[in-house]
Specification:
Number of helices: 1
Radius of gyration: 36 Å
Distance between the termini: 121 Å
Shape: rod-shaped
Mean pLDDT: 90
Strand content: under 5%
Oligomer: single chain
Largest sheet: none
């Protein structure tokens, strides 16, 4: 029994449908893997940048204290000399 043109068209149609389903499954798997890798990459990035940002914030918090102390020392040591030893 030979295949007719109609049979070949039905086979072709079913193959196309099957390939579309497989394509959708493959694309979904790729999306999931990329999401997992991106999530890990973000986590690694934030784990590394977090200590640096904490240092920056600590420095920013200490800056006014250092400036106030420097101003007080400049009052005591005007022109490089101790103001109380004149």
């Amino acid at each position: 029994m030979a295949l007719t043109k109609k049979d070949l068209e039905q086979i072709d149609k079913r193959l196309e449908q099957r390939l579309e389903f497989q394509k959708a499954d493959i694309l979904e798997e790729i999306d999931e893997r990329l999401d997992d890798k991106l999530t890990k990459l973000k986590s690694d990035f934030f784990d590394k940048i977090d200590p640096i940002l904490k240092e920056v914030l600590t420095s920013r918090d200490k800056k006014p204290l250092i400036e106030n102390r420097l101003e007080a020392l400049e009052k005591i040591h005007a022109e490089g000399k101790h103001a109380l030893s004149s």
